[in-house]
Hints:
By secondary structure, the protein is of the alpha+beta class. 49% of the residues lie in helices and 6% in strands.
Amino acid sequence: MRLSLGQEMRMVQKQILAPRMIQSMEILQLPIQALEERIEQEMAENPTLEFREEEDPDLPVDEAVDPGPPDAPTEDERELVIDDRDSQKDFERLLRMDEEWPDHFEERTRPSRNRLDEVDERHHDAMANMADRPQSLHDYLHDQLSWFELDPKLRAMCDRIIYNLDPNGRLQSSLEDLLGADASAEDLELARQALALVQKLDPPGVAARDVRECLLLQLTPGMPHYEQLKRLISDHLEDLEHNRLPQIAKKTGYSIPLIQELIQQMRCLKVNPGAEFNNATAPPVVPDIFVEQGEDGRYRVRLEDGKTPNLSISPYYRNLLMTGDEKAREFIKQKINSAQWLIDAIEQRRATLTKVAQAIMDHQTAFLEKGPEAIEPLKMQQIADKVGVHVTTVSRAVDDKWIQTPRGIFPLKRFFCSGTVSADGEEVTWDNVRRKLQEIIAAEDKKNPFNDDQLVEELAKQGIKVARRTITKYRKAMNIPSSRERRDWSKVQGT
């Protein structure tokens, strides 16, 4: 390897994205709520941005101003586009607009006191309506400890165990790991006493170290089949998981009907007793797009723009371009430039998202009319070719967007799905393959359920040819047990 210092000329081809294009892609990818937050942030940072108030629809017709017939736009009436390469002409045109139409671009000061009070009240109402933080499992257990008169060392050890529980109420580490390598025998005995005390608290099964201990802690003497349940959980939990009921019956001497009755009782026990305290609510879904059927029967899309304010460049700061020193004028130019970029990016997002969503709905009309079972295979490249954009633009447009349809609210990505070819040569989506698989399993004979090879044969009878590994993958993804675990031993015993 030779290292040298010197100058050389090299021709390379690179694609460099301008800041304006990067911002446009970022705005396109934002969902409606994130876009509103982005606009609020830009409004706080850029003083040249302002809300463009809509015309009052209740204004009498005779008070409205008749604009007259549209004429060809002059140089001063054409759309203002600030270009970072040469923006001097645009700013000169801004100055002329302020001089020629001073009444139209009157000087505007900061928002009035009433406007500020209105904003403060809206923020106060939003904070007042925020949901209160629910009680956590740790707080609930800690409150129960206050009922007991405990030695300070024992209480401290109980608190230590409580605050080391996972969200499901399980103690994942052993007492030795919890105490550390330098713990004495007295410390370990104290930890055992504290653990026994915490495990007696509500909810039952809390502070268990595995599933078996969690279930056993929920058994109470005197309940029906207490001894049988205790033996079943202690010695045959793995056999129960794999539905090996004949082996359990052979080892325990219990009948199959009794074992199934015990299983029904076990289903009332909680594997994760602390899960009820995990009340993390999902944020509400706000659709970006709505689909409505017109009188001609065609489905048309519209964007949710009701909460997105219309932005414009403040005439107040355009007036400031005529005054002030050169440094202030340069600052205002930069802010107006940034504001125009944002306005253009929002308009570009609106246009691109509308075209992409309309193309998707045109392709998935059968889904809207018949339901999810009629969804057709669709790739992003098909929409990109139809709209005339790059496939990455389609990906950004549909990312984290939701659409309100007559069939419900769906993520926009839901309408993109691959598929396979049936025996008739028709394309079948993988969603339909999974649905067919579920129907076959639901209708099978539970005394002798289909294994994965037989499921492949059953799908082939319906004209769908798939590999066995595909069936296994889909079955596991749908949380469908294997054929052995799906077997109903009561029906087998009945025969």
